[in-house]
Design a protein that fits this description.
Blueprint lengths: L1 E2 L5 H8 L22 H12 L3 H13 L2 H28 L7 H8 L6 H12 L3 H13 L6 H21 L1 H19 L2 H4 L5 H4 L13 H14 L18 H30 L2 H5 L5 H10 L1 H36 L6 H5 L8 H17 L5 H5 L15 H28 L1 E9 L5 E9 L1 H4 L14
Antiparallel strand pairs: 1-2, 2-3
Length: 473
Amino acid sequence: MTNIDNVPDSEVLAQSEDAQDEGNTVPALSNPLGYKVTLLSSVTLNIGRMLGAGIYSVPGVILNSVGSIGLLFTFWLLSPLFALGGILIYSEYASMFPKRSGAEVVYLEQAYPHPRFLVPVMFAVTSVLLSATNSIIFAQYALTIFDIPITPTTQTIVAVTACAVAMGLVALSTKWSLRAVNFLTGLKLGLHGRPRTWWFHSHPRSICQFSVPFSGSTTNPNSLATALVKTNYAFAGWNNAFNVIGEVHTRDPVRTVRKASLLSLLLMTSLFFFVNVAYVAAVPKDEISNSGQLIAALFFQHVFGEGFAAKTLPAMVSLSCFGNIIAVTIGQTRVLREIARQGLLPYPGFFASTKPFDTPLAPVCLKCFLTVLVILVLPARDAFNFLVPPEPGHSDVSFWYAAYCVVGLGALALCGVYYWLWIVALPRLGGYTIVEEVEQLKDGALATRLTRKYHSSVEGSDNGEQQPLIAST
Protein backbone atom coordinates (compact mmCIF):
# COMPACT_ATOMS: atom_id res chain seq x y z
CA MET A 1 0.00 0.00 0.00
CA THR A 2 1.40 3.39 -0.98
CA ASN A 3 0.58 6.75 0.51
CA ILE A 4 -0.17 9.35 -2.15
CA ASP A 5 -1.02 12.34 -0.02
CA ASN A 6 0.77 14.67 -2.43
CA VAL A 7 -0.18 12.90 -5.68
CA PRO A 8 -3.52 13.71 -7.37
CA ASP A 9 -5.88 10.78 -7.25
CA SER A 10 -6.66 11.15 -10.94
CA GLU A 11 -3.02 10.62 -11.91
CA VAL A 12 -2.72 7.44 -9.89
CA LEU A 13 -6.01 5.93 -11.05
CA ALA A 14 -5.34 6.92 -14.65
CA GLN A 15 -2.29 4.67 -14.57
CA SER A 16 -3.79 1.98 -12.41
CA GLU A 17 -5.76 -0.36 -14.65
CA ASP A 18 -3.94 0.02 -17.92
CA ALA A 19 -0.33 0.56 -16.93
CA GLN A 20 2.26 -0.21 -19.61
CA ASP A 21 5.73 -1.47 -18.83
CA GLU A 22 8.36 0.48 -20.73
CA GLY A 23 10.25 -1.83 -23.03
CA ASN A 24 7.86 -4.72 -22.36
CA THR A 25 4.60 -5.83 -23.87
CA VAL A 26 1.33 -4.72 -22.39
CA PRO A 27 -0.26 -7.40 -20.19
CA ALA A 28 -2.96 -9.31 -22.01
CA LEU A 29 -5.60 -8.27 -19.50
CA SER A 30 -4.36 -5.24 -17.57
CA ASN A 31 -7.90 -4.01 -16.94
CA PRO A 32 -9.65 -6.51 -14.62
CA LEU A 33 -12.95 -5.80 -16.37
CA GLY A 34 -11.40 -6.81 -19.67
CA TYR A 35 -11.77 -5.25 -23.11
CA LYS A 36 -15.09 -6.43 -24.48
CA VAL A 37 -16.51 -3.12 -25.78
CA THR A 38 -16.27 -2.61 -29.54
CA LEU A 39 -17.49 0.18 -31.81
CA LEU A 40 -20.76 -1.70 -32.33
CA SER A 41 -21.21 -2.19 -28.60
CA SER A 42 -20.51 1.50 -27.98
CA VAL A 43 -23.16 2.52 -30.52
CA THR A 44 -25.76 0.13 -29.13
CA LEU A 45 -25.03 1.18 -25.54
CA ASN A 46 -25.87 4.75 -26.48
CA ILE A 47 -28.91 3.87 -28.58
CA GLY A 48 -30.12 1.34 -26.02
CA ARG A 49 -30.25 4.07 -23.42
CA MET A 50 -31.73 6.76 -25.68
CA LEU A 51 -34.38 4.48 -27.15
CA GLY A 52 -36.40 4.07 -23.98
CA ALA A 53 -39.76 5.49 -22.99
CA GLY A 54 -39.13 9.08 -24.12
CA ILE A 55 -40.25 8.84 -27.75
CA TYR A 56 -43.53 7.20 -26.64
CA SER A 57 -44.40 9.77 -24.00
CA VAL A 58 -42.99 13.25 -24.60
CA PRO A 59 -44.07 14.36 -28.13
CA GLY A 60 -47.63 15.08 -27.03
CA VAL A 61 -46.43 16.99 -23.97
CA ILE A 62 -44.00 19.00 -26.11
CA LEU A 63 -46.67 19.96 -28.65
CA ASN A 64 -48.94 21.03 -25.81
CA SER A 65 -46.12 23.31 -24.58
CA VAL A 66 -45.04 24.90 -27.89
CA GLY A 67 -48.47 25.06 -29.55
CA SER A 68 -47.48 24.36 -33.17
CA ILE A 69 -46.26 21.54 -35.38
CA GLY A 70 -43.41 23.68 -36.71
CA LEU A 71 -41.98 24.34 -33.25
CA LEU A 72 -42.42 20.67 -32.37
CA PHE A 73 -40.16 19.69 -35.28
CA THR A 74 -37.78 22.55 -34.51
CA PHE A 75 -37.20 21.37 -30.97
CA TRP A 76 -36.53 17.81 -32.13
CA LEU A 77 -33.80 19.24 -34.38
CA LEU A 78 -32.50 21.71 -31.79
CA SER A 79 -31.90 19.31 -28.91
CA PRO A 80 -29.34 17.18 -30.81
CA LEU A 81 -27.17 20.31 -31.12
CA PHE A 82 -26.88 20.43 -27.33
CA ALA A 83 -26.00 16.74 -27.32
CA LEU A 84 -23.39 17.39 -30.02
CA GLY A 85 -21.79 20.05 -27.85
CA GLY A 86 -21.75 17.57 -25.00
CA ILE A 87 -20.02 14.95 -27.15
CA LEU A 88 -17.27 17.42 -28.08
CA ILE A 89 -16.73 18.37 -24.43
CA TYR A 90 -16.72 14.77 -23.26
CA SER A 91 -14.24 13.88 -25.98
CA GLU A 92 -11.85 16.55 -24.71
CA TYR A 93 -12.05 15.19 -21.16
CA ALA A 94 -11.78 11.60 -22.37
CA SER A 95 -8.60 12.42 -24.26
CA MET A 96 -7.11 13.54 -20.93
CA PHE A 97 -8.16 10.34 -19.13
CA PRO A 98 -8.54 7.66 -21.84
CA LYS A 99 -8.14 4.75 -19.40
CA ARG A 100 -10.70 5.78 -16.79
CA SER A 101 -14.30 4.70 -17.06
CA GLY A 102 -17.05 6.53 -15.22
CA ALA A 103 -17.40 9.56 -17.51
CA GLU A 104 -19.04 12.39 -15.53
CA VAL A 105 -17.60 11.30 -12.19
CA VAL A 106 -14.08 11.58 -13.60
CA TYR A 107 -14.72 14.75 -15.59
CA LEU A 108 -16.54 16.60 -12.81
CA GLU A 109 -13.75 15.65 -10.43
CA GLN A 110 -11.34 17.52 -12.68
CA ALA A 111 -13.63 20.43 -13.57
CA TYR A 112 -14.60 21.14 -9.95
CA PRO A 113 -11.64 20.08 -7.80
CA HIS A 114 -12.80 22.12 -4.80
CA PRO A 115 -14.52 21.06 -2.63
CA ARG A 116 -12.77 17.83 -3.54
CA PHE A 117 -15.10 15.01 -4.69
CA LEU A 118 -18.27 16.90 -3.72
CA VAL A 119 -19.68 17.68 -7.18
CA PRO A 120 -19.05 14.26 -8.84
CA VAL A 121 -20.50 12.40 -5.87
CA MET A 122 -23.62 14.60 -5.80
CA PHE A 123 -24.12 13.90 -9.49
CA ALA A 124 -23.61 10.16 -9.11
CA VAL A 125 -25.99 9.84 -6.14
CA THR A 126 -28.86 11.67 -7.85
CA SER A 127 -28.41 9.98 -11.23
CA VAL A 128 -28.27 6.45 -9.79
CA LEU A 129 -30.98 6.94 -7.15
CA LEU A 130 -33.59 8.43 -9.50
CA SER A 131 -33.30 5.95 -12.38
CA ALA A 132 -36.13 3.46 -11.87
CA THR A 133 -38.38 4.88 -14.60
CA ASN A 134 -37.97 2.16 -17.22
CA SER A 135 -38.54 -0.68 -14.75
CA ILE A 136 -41.89 0.84 -13.83
CA ILE A 137 -42.93 1.45 -17.44
CA PHE A 138 -41.87 -2.07 -18.41
CA ALA A 139 -44.11 -3.46 -15.67
CA GLN A 140 -47.13 -1.44 -16.79
CA TYR A 141 -46.89 -2.43 -20.45
CA ALA A 142 -45.90 -6.06 -19.78
CA LEU A 143 -49.02 -6.50 -17.67
CA THR A 144 -51.08 -4.95 -20.48
CA ILE A 145 -49.76 -7.52 -22.98
CA PHE A 146 -51.08 -10.41 -20.88
CA ASP A 147 -54.33 -8.62 -19.91
CA ILE A 148 -53.37 -8.66 -16.24
CA PRO A 149 -54.93 -5.85 -14.19
CA ILE A 150 -52.37 -3.20 -13.22
CA THR A 151 -52.48 -2.98 -9.46
CA PRO A 152 -49.83 -1.58 -7.11
CA THR A 153 -48.85 -5.12 -6.12
CA THR A 154 -48.56 -6.59 -9.61
CA GLN A 155 -46.77 -3.51 -10.95
CA THR A 156 -44.22 -3.61 -8.13
CA ILE A 157 -43.59 -7.36 -8.50
CA VAL A 158 -43.04 -7.16 -12.26
CA ALA A 159 -40.88 -4.02 -11.99
CA VAL A 160 -38.65 -5.59 -9.33
CA THR A 161 -38.42 -8.82 -11.35
CA ALA A 162 -37.41 -6.97 -14.52
CA CYS A 163 -34.83 -5.02 -12.56
CA ALA A 164 -33.40 -8.20 -11.01
CA VAL A 165 -33.22 -10.12 -14.32
CA ALA A 166 -31.63 -7.29 -16.31
CA MET A 167 -29.13 -6.36 -13.61
CA GLY A 168 -28.41 -10.00 -12.85
CA LEU A 169 -27.26 -10.46 -16.43
CA VAL A 170 -24.90 -7.49 -16.08
CA ALA A 171 -23.58 -8.90 -12.80
CA LEU A 172 -22.83 -12.34 -14.26
CA SER A 173 -21.27 -11.51 -17.62
CA THR A 174 -20.18 -8.32 -19.35
CA LYS A 175 -19.85 -10.14 -22.67
CA TRP A 176 -23.38 -11.52 -22.63
CA SER A 177 -24.92 -8.31 -21.33
CA LEU A 178 -23.30 -6.43 -24.22
CA ARG A 179 -24.60 -9.07 -26.63
CA ALA A 180 -28.07 -8.65 -25.16
CA VAL A 181 -27.86 -4.89 -25.67
CA ASN A 182 -26.70 -5.40 -29.27
CA PHE A 183 -29.57 -7.81 -30.01
CA LEU A 184 -32.29 -5.78 -28.30
CA THR A 185 -31.12 -2.52 -29.83
CA GLY A 186 -31.09 -4.03 -33.33
CA LEU A 187 -34.58 -5.38 -32.78
CA LYS A 188 -35.82 -2.05 -31.45
CA LEU A 189 -34.35 -0.14 -34.39
CA GLY A 190 -36.11 -2.49 -36.78
CA LEU A 191 -39.45 -1.97 -35.07
CA HIS A 192 -39.08 1.76 -34.53
CA GLY A 193 -37.96 2.34 -38.11
CA ARG A 194 -41.39 1.29 -39.34
CA PRO A 195 -43.05 4.67 -38.59
CA ARG A 196 -40.90 6.18 -41.37
CA THR A 197 -43.17 4.24 -43.77
CA TRP A 198 -46.30 4.21 -41.60
CA TRP A 199 -46.74 7.96 -42.09
CA PHE A 200 -48.29 7.14 -45.47
CA HIS A 201 -51.30 5.89 -43.49
CA SER A 202 -52.19 9.52 -42.88
CA HIS A 203 -55.40 11.08 -41.66
CA PRO A 204 -56.79 13.51 -44.30
CA ARG A 205 -57.26 16.22 -41.68
CA SER A 206 -53.73 15.67 -40.37
CA ILE A 207 -52.07 16.35 -43.74
CA CYS A 208 -53.39 19.93 -43.63
CA GLN A 209 -51.35 20.49 -40.49
CA PHE A 210 -48.14 20.58 -42.55
CA SER A 211 -49.40 23.52 -44.66
CA VAL A 212 -49.48 25.91 -41.67
CA PRO A 213 -46.76 24.45 -39.44
CA PHE A 214 -46.26 27.42 -37.12
CA SER A 215 -49.91 28.20 -36.50
CA GLY A 216 -50.57 28.55 -32.76
CA SER A 217 -46.91 28.90 -31.77
CA THR A 218 -46.31 30.14 -28.24
CA THR A 219 -43.80 32.78 -27.17
CA ASN A 220 -44.02 31.91 -23.48
CA PRO A 221 -40.42 31.38 -22.29
CA ASN A 222 -41.48 28.91 -19.60
CA SER A 223 -43.36 26.74 -22.09
CA LEU A 224 -40.46 26.80 -24.53
CA ALA A 225 -38.01 25.90 -21.77
CA THR A 226 -40.24 23.01 -20.70
CA ALA A 227 -40.31 21.70 -24.28
CA LEU A 228 -36.52 21.87 -24.49
CA VAL A 229 -36.16 19.92 -21.24
CA LYS A 230 -38.54 17.23 -22.50
CA THR A 231 -36.75 16.79 -25.82
CA ASN A 232 -33.40 16.65 -24.06
CA TYR A 233 -34.85 13.91 -21.85
CA ALA A 234 -35.55 11.83 -24.96
CA PHE A 235 -31.90 12.17 -26.07
CA ALA A 236 -30.48 11.28 -22.66
CA GLY A 237 -27.95 8.49 -23.16
CA TRP A 238 -25.77 9.84 -25.96
CA ASN A 239 -22.86 9.72 -23.48
CA ASN A 240 -23.35 6.17 -22.16
CA ALA A 241 -20.35 4.72 -24.01
CA PHE A 242 -18.04 7.18 -22.23
CA ASN A 243 -18.84 5.28 -19.02
CA VAL A 244 -17.03 2.20 -20.36
CA ILE A 245 -14.17 3.86 -22.24
CA GLY A 246 -11.62 1.98 -20.14
CA GLU A 247 -12.95 -1.32 -21.57
CA VAL A 248 -12.92 -0.40 -25.27
CA HIS A 249 -11.13 -2.99 -27.40
CA THR A 250 -9.46 -0.68 -29.95
CA ARG A 251 -6.12 1.08 -30.33
CA ASP A 252 -7.72 4.50 -29.77
CA PRO A 253 -10.63 4.23 -27.29
CA VAL A 254 -11.37 7.97 -27.34
CA ARG A 255 -11.79 8.03 -31.10
CA THR A 256 -13.95 4.91 -30.98
CA VAL A 257 -16.28 6.28 -28.32
CA ARG A 258 -16.51 9.69 -30.00
CA LYS A 259 -17.37 8.05 -33.33
CA ALA A 260 -19.95 5.83 -31.63
CA SER A 261 -21.57 8.83 -29.93
CA LEU A 262 -21.77 10.79 -33.18
CA LEU A 263 -23.21 7.81 -35.08
CA SER A 264 -25.81 7.06 -32.42
CA LEU A 265 -26.81 10.74 -32.16
CA LEU A 266 -27.20 11.04 -35.94
CA LEU A 267 -29.26 7.84 -36.10
CA MET A 268 -31.51 8.81 -33.20
CA THR A 269 -32.02 12.35 -34.50
CA SER A 270 -33.24 10.95 -37.81
CA LEU A 271 -35.39 8.30 -36.14
CA PHE A 272 -36.99 10.63 -33.60
CA PHE A 273 -37.72 13.27 -36.23
CA PHE A 274 -39.43 10.85 -38.62
CA VAL A 275 -41.37 9.22 -35.78
CA ASN A 276 -42.76 12.68 -34.92
CA VAL A 277 -43.58 13.24 -38.60
CA ALA A 278 -45.49 9.95 -38.49
CA TYR A 279 -47.37 11.06 -35.36
CA VAL A 280 -48.41 14.35 -36.96
CA ALA A 281 -49.37 12.71 -40.26
CA ALA A 282 -51.63 10.17 -38.60
CA VAL A 283 -53.11 12.02 -35.61
CA PRO A 284 -54.87 15.41 -35.61
CA LYS A 285 -53.04 18.19 -33.79
CA ASP A 286 -55.63 18.72 -31.06
CA GLU A 287 -55.58 15.01 -30.19
CA ILE A 288 -51.78 15.03 -29.98
CA SER A 289 -51.82 18.07 -27.69
CA ASN A 290 -54.30 16.42 -25.35
CA SER A 291 -52.72 12.96 -25.46
CA GLY A 292 -50.27 13.57 -22.61
CA GLN A 293 -48.01 10.51 -22.47
CA LEU A 294 -50.27 8.38 -24.73
CA ILE A 295 -49.32 9.73 -28.16
CA ALA A 296 -47.94 6.37 -29.31
CA ALA A 297 -51.18 4.62 -28.37
CA LEU A 298 -53.18 7.19 -30.36
CA PHE A 299 -50.92 6.72 -33.35
CA PHE A 300 -51.37 2.95 -33.40
CA GLN A 301 -55.14 3.29 -33.00
CA HIS A 302 -55.40 5.72 -35.92
CA VAL A 303 -53.18 3.67 -38.24
CA PHE A 304 -54.02 0.06 -37.38
CA GLY A 305 -57.05 0.14 -35.13
CA GLU A 306 -57.39 -0.65 -31.46
CA GLY A 307 -56.93 -4.41 -31.83
CA PHE A 308 -53.43 -4.17 -33.33
CA ALA A 309 -52.36 -1.36 -31.03
CA ALA A 310 -53.51 -3.21 -27.93
CA LYS A 311 -50.75 -5.82 -28.33
CA THR A 312 -48.07 -4.36 -30.58
CA LEU A 313 -47.50 -1.07 -28.77
CA PRO A 314 -47.07 -2.61 -25.28
CA ALA A 315 -44.61 -5.13 -26.74
CA MET A 316 -42.52 -2.37 -28.36
CA VAL A 317 -42.48 -0.26 -25.22
CA SER A 318 -41.61 -3.23 -23.01
CA LEU A 319 -38.78 -4.22 -25.34
CA SER A 320 -37.40 -0.68 -25.34
CA CYS A 321 -37.55 -0.39 -21.57
CA PHE A 322 -35.89 -3.74 -20.87
CA GLY A 323 -33.02 -2.97 -23.21
CA ASN A 324 -32.73 0.44 -21.60
CA ILE A 325 -32.40 -1.13 -18.13
CA ILE A 326 -29.44 -3.25 -19.25
CA ALA A 327 -27.71 -0.37 -21.07
CA VAL A 328 -28.17 2.02 -18.15
CA THR A 329 -26.93 -0.56 -15.65
CA ILE A 330 -23.76 -1.25 -17.63
CA GLY A 331 -22.93 2.46 -17.65
CA GLN A 332 -23.97 3.44 -14.14
CA THR A 333 -22.24 0.53 -12.42
CA ARG A 334 -18.98 1.77 -13.92
CA VAL A 335 -19.78 5.16 -12.39
CA LEU A 336 -20.29 3.56 -8.97
CA ARG A 337 -17.12 1.52 -9.32
CA GLU A 338 -15.14 4.64 -10.17
CA ILE A 339 -16.51 6.33 -7.04
CA ALA A 340 -15.33 3.33 -5.06
CA ARG A 341 -11.89 3.54 -6.65
CA GLN A 342 -11.75 7.16 -5.50
CA GLY A 343 -12.36 5.94 -1.95
CA LEU A 344 -15.75 7.62 -1.62
CA LEU A 345 -17.77 4.49 -0.84
CA PRO A 346 -17.42 2.45 2.35
CA TYR A 347 -15.20 -0.60 1.81
CA PRO A 348 -13.72 0.70 -1.47
CA GLY A 349 -11.81 -2.53 -2.07
CA PHE A 350 -15.06 -4.48 -2.01
CA PHE A 351 -16.90 -2.17 -4.43
CA ALA A 352 -13.92 -1.82 -6.79
CA SER A 353 -13.29 -5.56 -7.01
CA THR A 354 -14.29 -7.49 -10.12
CA LYS A 355 -14.37 -10.91 -8.47
CA PRO A 356 -15.67 -13.55 -9.08
CA PHE A 357 -17.10 -12.97 -12.58
CA ASP A 358 -14.79 -10.20 -13.84
CA THR A 359 -17.75 -7.83 -13.54
CA PRO A 360 -18.53 -4.95 -11.16
CA LEU A 361 -20.68 -7.24 -9.03
CA ALA A 362 -20.86 -5.07 -5.90
CA PRO A 363 -21.82 -1.87 -7.81
CA VAL A 364 -24.50 -3.86 -9.68
CA CYS A 365 -25.95 -5.06 -6.37
CA LEU A 366 -25.90 -1.50 -5.00
CA LYS A 367 -27.58 -0.19 -8.14
CA CYS A 368 -30.22 -2.92 -7.92
CA PHE A 369 -30.84 -2.16 -4.25
CA LEU A 370 -31.30 1.58 -4.89
CA THR A 371 -33.61 0.97 -7.86
CA VAL A 372 -35.76 -1.50 -5.94
CA LEU A 373 -35.88 0.92 -3.02
CA VAL A 374 -37.26 3.68 -5.24
CA ILE A 375 -39.83 1.27 -6.74
CA LEU A 376 -41.02 0.18 -3.29
CA VAL A 377 -41.07 3.64 -1.70
CA LEU A 378 -43.00 5.51 -4.39
CA PRO A 379 -46.76 4.97 -4.73
CA ALA A 380 -47.20 2.67 -7.74
CA ARG A 381 -49.67 4.85 -9.63
CA ASP A 382 -47.48 7.96 -9.23
CA ALA A 383 -44.05 6.44 -9.83
CA PHE A 384 -43.56 7.45 -13.48
CA ASN A 385 -44.82 11.02 -13.10
CA PHE A 386 -42.66 11.45 -10.00
CA LEU A 387 -39.48 10.38 -11.79
CA VAL A 388 -40.42 12.25 -15.01
CA PRO A 389 -41.78 15.61 -13.73
CA PRO A 390 -45.23 16.79 -14.88
CA GLU A 391 -46.05 20.03 -16.60
CA PRO A 392 -45.60 23.22 -14.52
CA GLY A 393 -48.69 23.97 -12.48
CA HIS A 394 -50.26 20.56 -13.08
CA SER A 395 -50.51 17.85 -10.47
CA ASP A 396 -50.16 14.44 -12.13
CA VAL A 397 -49.57 12.70 -8.80
CA SER A 398 -51.74 12.13 -5.75
CA PHE A 399 -49.36 14.09 -3.52
CA TRP A 400 -47.82 17.54 -3.80
CA TYR A 401 -46.83 18.01 -7.46
CA ALA A 402 -43.50 19.71 -6.61
CA ALA A 403 -42.38 16.85 -4.36
CA TYR A 404 -39.93 15.65 -7.02
CA CYS A 405 -38.13 19.01 -6.81
CA VAL A 406 -37.90 18.80 -3.04
CA VAL A 407 -36.59 15.23 -3.17
CA GLY A 408 -33.97 16.12 -5.79
CA LEU A 409 -32.78 19.20 -3.91
CA GLY A 410 -32.94 17.26 -0.65
CA ALA A 411 -30.65 14.56 -2.05
CA LEU A 412 -28.15 17.21 -3.08
CA ALA A 413 -28.39 18.88 0.32
CA LEU A 414 -27.80 15.57 2.13
CA CYS A 415 -24.70 14.99 0.01
CA GLY A 416 -23.46 18.44 0.98
CA VAL A 417 -24.16 17.89 4.69
CA TYR A 418 -22.50 14.47 4.65
CA TYR A 419 -19.47 15.90 2.86
CA TRP A 420 -19.16 18.78 5.36
CA LEU A 421 -19.38 16.44 8.34
CA TRP A 422 -16.99 13.86 6.86
CA ILE A 423 -14.34 16.12 5.32
CA VAL A 424 -14.57 19.36 7.32
CA ALA A 425 -16.28 19.17 10.71
CA LEU A 426 -15.16 15.82 12.11
CA PRO A 427 -11.52 16.19 11.00
CA ARG A 428 -11.41 19.66 12.57
CA LEU A 429 -12.81 18.36 15.85
CA GLY A 430 -10.70 15.21 15.82
CA GLY A 431 -7.47 16.90 14.87
CA TYR A 432 -6.81 14.90 11.71
CA THR A 433 -6.75 15.29 7.92
CA ILE A 434 -8.28 12.98 5.31
CA VAL A 435 -5.50 11.63 3.07
CA GLU A 436 -5.51 9.16 0.17
CA GLU A 437 -3.79 5.81 0.11
CA VAL A 438 -3.75 3.44 -2.84
CA GLU A 439 -3.93 -0.32 -2.50
CA GLN A 440 -3.77 -3.01 -5.14
CA LEU A 441 -6.58 -5.54 -5.07
CA LYS A 442 -6.20 -9.23 -5.81
CA ASP A 443 -7.62 -8.81 -9.31
CA GLY A 444 -4.98 -6.19 -10.14
CA ALA A 445 -7.22 -3.13 -9.78
CA LEU A 446 -6.05 -0.17 -7.75
CA ALA A 447 -8.41 1.51 -5.32
CA THR A 448 -8.02 4.62 -3.22
CA ARG A 449 -8.75 4.47 0.48
CA LEU A 450 -9.36 7.66 2.42
CA THR A 451 -7.72 7.43 5.82
CA ARG A 452 -7.16 9.69 8.79
CA LYS A 453 -3.78 11.36 9.23
CA TYR A 454 -3.64 12.81 12.72
CA HIS A 455 -1.75 15.99 13.38
CA SER A 456 1.56 15.58 15.17
CA SER A 457 0.25 17.19 18.36
CA VAL A 458 -2.57 14.67 18.47
CA GLU A 459 -0.36 11.68 17.80
CA GLY A 460 1.99 12.75 20.59
CA SER A 461 5.08 12.52 18.42
CA ASP A 462 5.72 16.25 18.53
CA ASN A 463 3.70 17.70 21.39
CA GLY A 464 6.29 20.23 22.59
CA GLU A 465 7.71 18.11 25.42
CA GLN A 466 10.29 16.60 23.06
CA GLN A 467 11.56 19.98 21.80
CA PRO A 468 14.67 21.62 23.33
CA LEU A 469 13.87 24.27 25.92
CA ILE A 470 16.55 26.57 24.51
CA ALA A 471 17.17 26.56 20.80
CA SER A 472 20.73 26.03 19.82
CA THR A 473 22.46 28.79 17.91
